[in-house]
Write a structure and sequence with these properties.
With about 280 residues, this protein is α+β, with helices and mostly antiparallel strands. The chain has a domain of about 180 residues: Trefoil (Acidic Fibroblast Growth Factor, subunit A). It has four helices and 13 strands. A hairpin with a 5-residue loop joins β7 and β8. The radius of gyration is 26 Å and the shape is globular. It comes from Ceriporiopsis subvermispora (strain B) (White-rot fungus). GO terms for molecular function: actin filament binding. Keywords: Nucleus.
Length: about 280
């Protein structure tokens, strides 16, 4: 029998510190106390993948799984072909290892991880690929989902909706939901044109525990008035230094209404001035 150690397959990201196991210092401690201490250490492990409780926790490396039947799938990105792939998790099953439950699954390769970023003070998020050049997940008005843009704009914004059971739906700027759809040949693909949230629109989302704790700490400071969101206004920075859509300025619906109203008022003011000028000229004629 080979004496070689089994190599761990747990995925680690650059910059993460390896958590070392602590030896029990006090042999006189009871078994219950020891188990409690180990459980607390496991909970504090920064690289542990955990489920969400609310939308503000979604940040950093993100693992997105859909509980499809008969095989659950994970949203991955193929950097070689530059396309999104829905990968079956059952293909990763090892013959000599116990098959973990769906909620215990963790990413085993970088292509299964997305990086979530959030604009300060905004409920929307951006999902960027964790491999390749870093492309943002986007959806156009026709419901076509892709990851082929290096800059983020309105079509790259998603609003996460967390349900009481912990599952998450992602809404785009067109107020439609991301879903898993069956296309020709029985293959599965992502769509972004669902009007309502059903089974196809619900996903299990996992993040690393250190980012969940970070979100809770920020929320606590915000409630205590210790965090000023105005110091980091990424939305204003994007409008100032970046034009989305091939150099065209992209504005929100509210902005368009305000612009339209301003133009209308401007035209009325010009017409009033012209009428006054005409009346004055008629008096002197």
């Amino acid at each position: 029998m080979s004496t070689d150690k089994v190599r761990s397959t747990k995925l680690k990201f650059k910059g993460e510190k390896t958590r070392k196991k602590r030896r029990r210092e006090d042999e006189d401690e009871g078994a219950g106390s020891s188990r409690r201490r180990r459980r607390e250490e496991d909970d504090e492990a920064p690289e542990t993948w955990v489920l969400l409780e609310n939308a503000v926790e979604i940040r950093g490396p993100t693992f997105i799984v859909h509980p499809s039947d008969p095989s659950p799938i994970v949203i991955t990105y193929d950097s070689t072909r530059g396309r999104i792939i829905l990968q079956s998790l059952d293909k990763e099953r090892c013959e000599d290892a116990e098959h973990p439950s769906l909620l215990e699954r963790e990413p085993t390769e970088v292509s299964q991880v997305w990086v979530t970023t959030r604009v300060a003070g905004s409920p929307t998020i951006n999902l960027r690929t964790g491999t390749g050049e870093g492309k943002f997940l986007s959806c156009d008005k026709h419901g076509l989902v892709a990851a082929d843009r290096e800059a983020r704009g309105p079509q790259e914004e998603w609003t996460p909706v967390v349900f009481p059971d912990g599952m998450v739906a992602f809404q785009n700027i067109y107020e439609k939901y991301l879903s898993v759809d069956e296309i020709a040949g029985g293959q599965l693909a992502l769509r972004g044109d669902s009007e309502e949230v059903g089974f196809r629109e619900r996903f299990w989302v996992k993040i690393q525990s250190k980012y969940k704790r970070e979100a809770h700490e920020e929320e606590k400071k915000r409630k205590e008035g210790m965090v000023d969101d105005s110091k980091v206004d990424e939305a204003s920075t994007n409008k100032m230094y970046q034009a989305w859509g091939a150099g065209r300025s992209v504005t929100s619906a509210d902005d368009k209404k305000q612009l339209k109203k301003a133009r209308k008022e401007g035209r009325l003011a010009e017409a009033l001035l012209d009428r006054r000028s005409k009346l004055k000229s008629d008096r002197f004629c």
